[in-house]
Design brief:
Length: about 350
């Protein structure tokens, strides 16, 4: 490759129930194609075996479409970046094996990406070369998804320190489970978000954790929600139907309050006012509003990702791969997937 050649990275994400592929050229996104798996809705949660089967069906057409949309031939690719973990092992295996096969056939390097690091670096995805609103280092990132709730101190593209994290359930998991208890669909996050917009956030109070430092806990809130609901249903069997908006708004308000309190403390102690949010729960309207409010009240410079980059997507894997490519940080063919780890 001569110095003037462009760098094309194909990113592949298959850690949970979204099969996604994206192409980035010199740090600018050309395509980001995602196939979601509706099959899990009937079960109220992701069924690992069904997820890996669906990835098997989706991976070839999704990668084909991503390349087609980008107008890029396989032979132009400089490297393939893939999610190595954390995630569901069977799901990860599909993406990892596909990436290995394609990289080997093209004779190009492979780049392993930590899914959580990808979520944080989603803030550096450029839809066009002139995009400027991006964080500078150091910044804090609240990473909130179905599997994680962390406060990450980001010192560089690769130097990230988890300064606080949940000791039990993740924020998204708590919302999803409470939504399930109310008999709502899956995933509960977007449903609770929609209902909460019409409800009173102060209608009901649920228990809040008292955990030291910047760590979180959401299992107590989940239990408190369940027990309160059980009591209210004794008095009125249609309680949920009559009060679903207020229940959703109060639950959402409590989760956001817990998240923002620790984040505020971390920002104050570490004297960092650039604050970002990432992960599936960052799609939440109330959380986005809370960030806007904190920007005004505490002088934060905030970074909120586009909706398409909040939930699992390959664009964040491709951009992380791009930064690693610049440092020639490649991985060997025999590298296995991993299911659990933090950034
Ligand atoms: O990052 P993500 O796509 O997957 C991982 O967990 O890795 O996050 C999924 C989570 C689910 O818990 C889902 O309910 C939640 O993000 N979510 C939301 C919203 N959209 C997705 N939670 C609250 N409000 C939303 N609008």
């Amino acid at each position: 490759m001569c110095l003037m050649d462009s760098i094309y990275i194909l990113g592949i994400e298959s850690s949970c129930d979204d099969t996604s592929a994206a192409v980035i050229k010199d740090g600018v996104l050309l395509s980001n194609v995602t196939a979601s798996q509706a099959v899990h809705e009937a079960y109220g949660g992701v069924v690992p075996e069904l997820a890996s089967r669906a990835h098997q069906q989706n991976i070839v057409p999704v990668v084909d479409q991503a390349l087609k949309k980008a107008g890029v031939e396989r032979e132009q690719l400089s490297a393939i970046a893939f999610t190595r973990g954390p995630g569901l092992m069977g799901s990860l295996h599909v993406g990892v094996s596909f990436a290995k096969g394609l990289a080997a056939s093209l004779g190009i390097p492979m780049i392993d990406v930590n899914h959580l690091q990808g979520h944080v670096l989603a803030h550096f995805i450029k839809d066009n070369p002139d995009e400027v609103h991006q964080p500078t280092f150091p910044f804090l990132c609240l990473l909130v998804s179905g599997g994680n709730s962390q406060i990450v101190l980001v010192r560089s593209y690769k130097d990230m320190q988890v300064v606080g994290q949940t000791i039990d359930d993740a924020a998204g998991e708590c919302i999803d489970k409470c939504s399930k208890v109310m008999g709502m669909g899956y995933p509960g996050g977007p449903i609770i978000d929609r209902l909460a917009r019409q409800g009173n956030p102060k209608a009901y109070q649920f228990s809040r954790p008292s955990i030291k430092g910047y760590d979180y806990s959401f299992s107590g809130l989940k239990t408190s929600f369940l027990y309160s609901l059980r009591d209210w249903l004794k008095g009125d069997p249609d309680f949920i139907e009559h009060h679903k908006e207020d229940l959703a708004a109060s639950l959402e308000y409590t989760v956001i309050d817990i998240l923002m309190k620790k984040l505020r403390q971390a920002s104050k102690d570490l004297k960092i006012k650039q604050v970002a949010v990432a992960g599936g729960v960052s799609a939440n309207t109330g959380l986005r509003n809370a960030f806007q409010d904190h920007a005004k009240r505490y002088g934060w410079t905030i970074f909120i990702p586009k909706f398409s980059y909040t939930t699992d997507n390959a664009a964040m894997i491709a951009i992380t791969g791009y930064f690693k490519y610049l440092e020639k940080d490649f991985c060997p063919m025999e590298l296995p997937a991993f299911s659990r780890v933090t950034v």
